[in-house]
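Quick one:
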Amino acid sequence: IMARVDSLPEGAKEVLQNGSLIEREFGYELIKQVTGLPEQELLTHLSVLKDAELLYERGIYPQSTYIFKHALTQEVVHDSILTKRKKKLHEVIGNAIEQLYKENIGEYYEVLAEHFIESENFKKAAEHSKLAGKKAQKAASFKDAIEYARKAIYCLERLPETDTIQKKIIDARTRLAGYYLSLDHYVDAKEAVAPIADLALELNYQKRLPIIYTVMGTFSQWVEEDYSQAFRYLDQAFKISEKVNDDT
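Output:
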C-alpha cells in the first residue's frame, strides 16, 4: 500500500494523509478547511486519489464525501505520518470541525475529544470529553458516559494544578462516580471519589461534598455492610446538601 502512496504526487499524498487522520470517511468542506488549499488544486488532488482507487466519492460536489476504499489503506497511511506532524494535524482538524459545525456541534463532541487528546490540547479535550459523557448519559449509554468521564479526568490531570482545575477534577470524578452508581458499581464509584475527598474539604468545595459522601455511604452500606458508617456518611451528605441549597 505504501508503495502506491509514495508514488503519488506530493500534494495528493498530503491530502490523503490529512484525510486518514479525520476518519475513513470525510466531507469535502472539512478536507478543504483542513488543507487550506485553493478549490481547484484540492479537486485535482482528490481526482488523482480517486483515479488511483485509494478513495471513492459519494454525493454531489460540493456536498460530496470521500471514503477510503479499504480500511487498511487508511490505517497504513495514518501510521506512516510522523508523530509530531500527526499531533499538529489533529489540532488543525479539531479546530476545523469546531468552526465548520458550530451550529450542530453536539454531534461532534466525541470526535473532537479524540482529536484534541491526540493533539495534547488537554483543555479542549477535557471539555469535549465532559460534554460527550453528558450526552451519553442522556441517551442512557452509561458505558460510553464512563469512558468519556475517564478521558476528561485524564486530560484535566495533565493541566496545571490551579484551584480552578482542581475543582474541575472534583467535578469530573463526582460525575464519573454518579455514572457508576447508576449501574450499581459501588466499588468503582468509591474509587472514583477516593482521590478527591480530602481535596474537596481542603478547597471547601461544598457543592460536591454531598455526592462524595453519598458514594462513600452507599459503599459502606452495600459493600462493607457497615450500616452505622453508612448512616454517618449519608447524614453528612444530607446536611451539607441542605446547607448548600440554603446558601444558594
